[in-house]
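Support request from a user on the community tier.

User writes: "When I paste my structure tokens into the form, the page sometimes reloads and wipes my input. The last time it worked, I copied everything first. Here is what I submitted, just in case something in the input itself triggers the reload:"
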């Protein structure tokens, strides 16, 4: 009992439900790959920007000068520049009003930076829950589709 089984024949002979599931899986795959490629580009750009800023930050330049340069572009900031800007702005604000309490100033500065870190991480993690869900559903669905196609192909009376 030999049978020539081609991929196209398996799809064409599958039930409408199986074909629909395969179409949905293909669509989700395309969407997922688009998101993965976009996220990869975003992460590469964030890494590059972070390295550039860190080189400048650790170069020994005056932090006030760095802050003034960053402040000029405050609407375009992201990553470590945004965290630095948020922390330094809070530091300057607290230093004006509470110059006699260094612990309070540092605590407020740290809190401001933690909020900025949280925002940046949230932005970098965009679409990850979707990708995780689609990945797990796709694996289970693909197994079920293969099982359905195999059953349909191996026992024609099931049609």
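"...and here is what came back when it finally went through:"
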């Amino acid at each position: 009992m030999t049978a020539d089984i081609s991929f196209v024949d398996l799809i064409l002979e599958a039930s409408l439900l199986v074909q629909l599931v395969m179409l949905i899986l293909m669509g989700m795959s395309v969407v997922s790959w688009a998101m993965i490629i976009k996220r990869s580009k975003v992460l590469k750009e964030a890494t590059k920007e972070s390295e550039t800023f860190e080189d400048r930050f650790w170069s020994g330049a005056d932090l006030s000068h760095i802050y003034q340069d960053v402040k000029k572009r405050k609407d375009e900031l992201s990553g470590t520049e945004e965290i630095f800007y948020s922390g330094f702005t809070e530091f300057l604000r607290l230093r004006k009003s509470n110059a006699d309490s260094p612990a309070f100033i540092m605590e407020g500065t740290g809190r401001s930076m933690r909020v900025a870190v949280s925002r940046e991480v949230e932005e970098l993690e965009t679409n990850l829950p979707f990708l995780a869900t689609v990945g797990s559903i796709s694996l289970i669905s693909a197994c079920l589709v293969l099982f359905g196609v195999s059953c349909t192909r191996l026992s024609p009376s099931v049609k």
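Agent notes: The reload is a front-end session timeout and is unrelated to the input. The two ends are 20 Å apart (CA to CA). DSSP finds six helices and no strands in the chain. Escalated to web team.
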